[in-house]
Specification:
Helix content is about 70%, strand content about 0%. By secondary structure, the chain is mainly α. The chain is globular, with a radius of gyration of 15 Å.
Length: about 110
């Protein structure tokens, strides 16, 4: 049983490395203004959110910082989703009040 859990954890870690590589080019495209559609940006952020428990997914933070001036509500929503999923302290602290203040310094990312 313990070996199965270890194997699953290793596979998840490998999958996160693949996700980082794939999302890096997508994030670069967004930041180079190749994707400006709010819905497309939301779709990308939604996919990235699944991998934010891994330290390598700092791309999510980078994307949030760059998109905030153009889509502040979208970024605030996704930071809130991040915190609800991955930040236990945030989930018990009342949440959204600190979002904008923490935008450039959020989480354990």
């Amino acid at each position: 049983m313990e070996e199965n859990i270890r194997r699953i954890a290793e596979e998840m870690n490998e999958l996160s490395k693949v996700a980082v590589v794939q999302y890096r080019s997508i994030v670069d495209d967004i930041l180079n203004k190749e994707f400006t559609d709010k819905r497309e940006n939301a779709r990308v952020m939604d996919g990235m959110l699944d991998f934010c428990q891994f330290d390598d997914m700092l791309l999510f933070k980078r994307l949030c910082r760059e998109l905030y001036p153009h889509h502040p509500q979208l970024v605030q929503d996704y930071i809130s989703y991040y915190r609800e999923m991955w930040d236990n302290e945030y989930a018990t602290d009342g949440g959204r009040i600190k979002l904008v203040k923490d935008l450039f310094n959020f989480g354990k990312m």
